[in-house]
């Protein structure tokens, strides 16, 4: 199993909009395409809380590549992304970082 942790730094004032996009567009599309959402989080304490992080699980890097390709080409994403940009005046994220994680032998998530 491969876990992908995605970290999005929202532009000032855009975190609520980013959460809206995730809840109403991205997560339903993940489910439709069989992408396994492990969880989603926001920092609650610290210097920089304007961040959204979520983790997806894939059987392999090949599966990951196939699922993301289908996601980005899906008409729901293309249409929804354009609507979000129009509604919120452009991008919501200033920077994104991806981590690819493999479980240790003692991890409860394998």
Compressed to H and E, one letter per element, the order equals EHEEHHE
Helix tally?
A: 3
CA radius of gyration is 15 Å
Distance between the termini: 6 Å
Instruction: Calculate the mean pLDDT score and round it.
Output: 94
Describe the structure.
By secondary structure, the protein is an alpha+beta fold. The protein has a single domain, classed as Alpha-Beta Plaits (2-Layer Sandwich), CATH 3.30.70. It is built from three helices and four strands; from the N terminus they run βαββααβ. It has helices spanning 15-33, 61-73, 75-88; strands at residues 2-10, 36-41, 51-58, 93-101. A four-stranded antiparallel β-sheet has the order 2-3-1-4. Helix 1 (15-33) packs antiparallel against helix 3 (75-88). The protein is globular and about 45 Å long. The relative contact order is 0.29.
């Amino acid at each position: 199993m491969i876990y992908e942790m995605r970290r999005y730094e929202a532009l000032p004032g855009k975190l609520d909009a980013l959460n809206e996009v995730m809840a109403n567009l991205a997560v339903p599309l993940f489910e439709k395409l069989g992408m396994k959402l492990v969880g989603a989080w926001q920092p609650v304490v610290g210097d920089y809380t304007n961040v959204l992080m979520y983790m997806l699980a894939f059987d392999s890097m090949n599966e990951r590549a196939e699922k993301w390709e289908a996601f980005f080409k899906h008409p729901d994403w293309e249409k929804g992304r354009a609507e979000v940009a129009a509604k919120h005046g452009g991008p919501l994220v200033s920077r994104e970082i991806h981590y690819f994680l493999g479980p240790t032998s003692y991890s409860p998530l394998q």
